[in-house]
Specification:
Layout (H helix, E strand, L loop, with lengths): L4 H26 L2 H18 L1 H4 L18 E2 L5 E2 L10 H37 L1 H16 L2 H12 L3 H11 L2 H14 L3 H8 L4 H37 L11 H8 L8 H28 L6
Antiparallel strand pairs: 1-2
Length: about 300
């Protein structure tokens, strides 16, 4: 059964409006060169993590003491080149940096997903219902912020043991507060708007109002916070790995490579320089992309 002509015209008009809106959004993002640079960096890191085994001929775990502490560009007798040199155990630095991006992205994406979903749920419930529910969750957030993160991480990892799963859980569970507060602030404003009040007046249940009307309007600031928070999570994971509380050797991590290279700063500067640059460039790219998304998606900001 085909819809009436008027309905079909209205649907086509709605689709055209949505397409024009997406085109405008992409154009606004394209005008921001820093955001495009950040998008390029993030794309390169994602590509390197996904195709790591095909980007380097060396095994990141293979040791060769005869080739230890070789400078960048050193070539073996067989003709193999180590573009970034080798470390104190003869392992290829480039291979370890590329494979280390996998750990950084897995921790970043997983922890942000856990904390983002948890914070989104708490922020929606707290902002929409208010009252004692809001007071309970906000005081819980204050308690969470009162714990120094490093002390909490040391305590939890000391009990559970250092591993990829535990570091994701620690970072994810302890980072929900910023999401909850941002979403709560948006919901406090959204719930007073006419379309929400109309939905309530028409008898819509609270769950339907939250999912159909409040959540889509609170998603944009959540997405921006999640993008920026991923950079913070990567830095935290590197710091914990540097302290020996993250993923354990011989698995390559950027923070662990920094810890190995600090002893050789005066004799083999490349051991710590290249993983440090990997952290710097990746975090900078994610932050620039997050800033671009914020400026593009926020209707209060003009290009």
């Amino acid at each position: 059964m085909t819809p009436p002509n008027g309905t079909a015209v209205a649907l086509r008009a709605l689709v055209e409006v949505e397409e024009r809106q997406w085109v405008k959004t992409l154009k606004r993002l394209a005008w921001r060169r820093t955001a495009l640079f950040g998008l390029g960096v993030v794309s390169i890191v994602l590509f390197a993590a996904a195709f790591a085994p095909w980007l380097t001929p060396f095994d990141p775990l293979e040791q060769d003491i005869n080739h230890r502490l070789k400078e960048p560009g050193w070539q073996t007798a067989e003709g193999s080149v180590h573009p970034l040199g080798t470390d104190h155990l003869g392992r290829d630095i480039l291979a370890r940096v590329i494979f280390g991006s996998r750990i950084a992205l897995v921790v970043g994406l997983s922890a942000v997903l856990i904390s983002g979903v948890l914070g989104m749920a708490i922020g929606l419930v707290s902002g929409y219902f208010g009252g004692k529910v809001d007071d309970f969750f906000m005081r819980l957030a204050d308690v969470q912020l009162a714990f120094p993160f490093i002390q909490l991480a040391i305590a939890v990892i000391g009990v559970l043991g250092p591993s990829l799963r535990n570091i994701i859980i620690v970072i994810g569970v302890s980072s929900w507060v910023v999401y909850a507060r941002v979403v709560r602030g948006e919901v406090l404003s959204i719930r007073e708007r006419e379309f929400v009040q109309a939905a309530i007046a028409l008898g819509s249940r609270d769950g339907r109002v939250l999912l159909r009307h409040v959540l889509p309007n609170a998603f944009t600031p959540w997405l921006v916070v999640a993008t920026l928070d991923m950079a913070r999570v990567i830095v935290i994971e590197s710091a914990l790995s540097f302290l020996g509380l993250g993923v354990q050797p011989p698995t390559p991590t950027w923070g662990g490579m920094l810890a190995d290279g600090r002893v050789y700063l005066s004799t083999a500067w490349w051991l710590a320089t290249f993983p440090g640059l990997a952290i710097l460039v990746t975090v900078l790219g994610i932050n620039l992309l997050g800033d671009g998304l914020r400026d593009t998606l926020d209707p209060r900001l003009k290009l």
